[in-house]
Amino acid sequence: MTDYFEVHARDGAARIGELRLSDSVTTPAVVDDVLADAGSLWATERELPDGSDDVLTVLPHRSLPAGSADEVRESFAVDYPDMDFPSAAVVTADTADDYGADAYVLSDAQGFVGHARAFRDNVIEAKENLPADTALMLSGVATPRNVSLLVYAGVDLVDETLARARGLEGFYLTSDGEYFLEDLDELPCACEACRKPASEFTRADAADHNANALRAELARVRRRVRDGRLRDYVEGQARHDQWLTALFRRFDQQYSFMEERVPVIRDSELTAASEESIDRVEIQRFADRVTKRYRNRFDNPLVLLPCSAKKPYSESQSHRQFQEAVQYRAHMVSMTSPIGVVPQELELTYPAQHYDSVVTGDWSEDEKSFVAEVLRRYLERNDYPRIIAHLPPGAYTEIVERVADDLDLDVEFTVSEHPTTTESIGNLMRTLDGEPKFTREEREHNVVKALADYQLGPDAGDALFSDVELEMTSRYPKLQVWNDAGVQLATMVPQYGVLSFTLEGAKVWRDSDAPTKTVEIDGFVPHGSVLAPGVVDADADIRPGDEVVVEGPKAFAIGRAEMGGRELIESTRGIGVEIRHVEER
Amino acid sequence: MSKPSPEVYERGRGMDAHNKVMRDIRSRKQKTYDPHEPTRVWIDEDNTPDGVYDSLTIILNTGGCRWARAGGCTMCGYVAESVEGGTVAHEALMDQIRVCLDHEAEEMDDGEQAGLIKIYTSGSFLDEREVPAETRDAIAETFADRDRMVVESLPDFVTREKLADFTDRGLETDVAIGLETATDRVRHDCVNKYFDFADFEDACEEAAAAGGGVKAYLLMKPPFLSEPEALDDMKSSIRRCAAVDNCHTVSMNPTNVQRYTMVDELFFNGGYRPPWLWSVADALRETADVDAIVVSDPVGGGQERGAHNCGDCDELVFKAVKDFNLRQDPSVFDQVSCDCEATWEFVLDNETSYNMPLVK
Q: Which terminus of chain B has fewer Cβ atoms in its 10 Å neighbourhood, N or C?
């Protein structure tokens, strides 16, 4: 049971949590002031402490330092009792287990902090062995420079000990590095400790400054987590130390660990400004779903278009011109780095309308091969009578030629010099002469089905909506889906580009062949939200932000998951599902 | 003596684990040694109850420590310095003694000889599997004209009869016992030494019966203890040893990281730092009132693998310790100071076994 820690928000493996002491602490945070160490069992036998709601008590431990052999770790591991006060247990990643504690401290962090692969392996193993709703602590390792990455990896609690010790050793820490005190002719900070001339600044002052800098960095990180934008930050911050850059690359290589934790929707911007942006879950997941779940339902030719800085693309000046030329006679698909390809039905879907990248017109080989690979998979899955590339000459056309050669496809190129020149637009218009227009109804139906495919799985759009006579009300992008009996099934949510279901829609989904994501609850009727203890079971592939069907002996409901499947099952605190509609049974 | 309890069971498991790991680590070492050469020999000066003596220290190359063959102590790499294959014959051991006498003659002024002879074996000189009774007697005879002897042994092998070989020849004889700590729990679980403090007390009585004394060897900062835990344990160990009748000298040895040991594995992987020289100084200063000579020889002092401070002050503190060894005057430590004392104090307040080493 975790009684004294609760996760309130998630951003990948990073979380905003609450250490529920008599004065609660918002995490990630330094916990020096609220940590009470009951001591080491190596040194002496110890009574179990009485504990207190004022502090997080580290239960008597026999810590295994870095380099302890397997046999020693196994023989000397402590079997911790489940206490009814806020408690932390000291473990190593491989001996970690659910001891009923609220937090777990890894005893060998000194050995893996600074080593990207070892850090990743230890933290992932610890996270897999520990209950999802408990806090993870590393002591004696946090600095202003590394703490954002520690949090990114899933660390909730740290302390000031290393930052202060470094100060006493004569090092001045900043979020971008460390300096010898003697080398500073001015202090690059305005914290309380630094409000004096560099000449009067002592090592004790440096210890205070280092702790201040660590706390300030943690506050920044908490803001980033709340905004769902920690990844954007660490892609930049990590550059200040090579092992930190290696660290998030290592985590990118463990796709399933991050994928399980990264929400499927966000309403914040996604900044794609580094070469590693391509590897982040949101980008990979979108490419994966577009090429494995989505299917084109238009019979018209394909027009490949360049992306625009403005999102959604259809609101940009260039795409308005393209739209006027195409006049519903072709299926418009935008090519973009780093997203890959974006069919027009998915232009609002996270992160297609949320990303912003650095535009110089020069594409790296990595970008080209990524987009080419996505395009190749897309064209393998979707057949078109004609393929028209309305793309600026250069990287775009190079990619298309590469893929067309691979797949032996004929592509018509319509741009001379630039896509929006009068001549180019005229070419595009004339190329489509004689092609039939699709109707608004066809377009809207295809949008709704495409969203269902993307969200729920391959062919879900047909599985859900082929048997019902769809009626659309309201205007794109706020489509409402009704059946022929006049009952609303779903609404398109423009800010994320996903469907949200009504109760009737949830039943259609449940009864369809499309895979359903279900949260099974106890015998109660949830109003507003389902709390984690009420969850009996959940599908493991539920991701934060997913649409989920909620079923229990007393209720049927539809809502949005606030945590992933494993967390739903394991957690004893926190909001599991925000309920949209519910009915009693 | 001990009744079956989970604690005992757990301790047995821990010892099995330590022994298995130590055997594995030791087996990686391939090097063997000539049984006719001592492991090491040197001349020094030592403080004894009869004053300061020139000393000849001999590390005898015997078959090696019996306990180390089972796995042995987590910090001890000396077993690797013994000969391959077990016992060394009487003749070979006497060859080693001859090499040592030659060394003494070479190093000391003409006509001088060391008044104090110290013989270590990285095991137990009094274990007859290491040093046969015949050899022990011959060695005692060789040094019968000296004033004092020190021989190293685990407490099990200390008997009045064996010591009589020396005391009957008029030698003031001390047994050097690697007690490591007065705390049984730390000695068992951190050092992996199997005997109890009570066994040490018994050995002190045996030595007394033969007219000998005991010099206790303590280990400053065994693996798995943080700096403050290690320092507390050392201070209480010094006091407990000094309180035992016939234990007249305590030698505090800061752990140095030896190859082919568990400590080396921890050190290599970032889980161990040898003690601060400030801790060594503090333990000596704070126990200067005890009724025993307390000395320390920080092997590898000032280096990464030995007791060290920040690098700037190591030599001065090391000198102060050597000075204290001879004069037992705690005021020698008032003469040294450094910025890094503040770091050391912070470590004492903040290092735990789950964040150590907090400072390298």
A: N
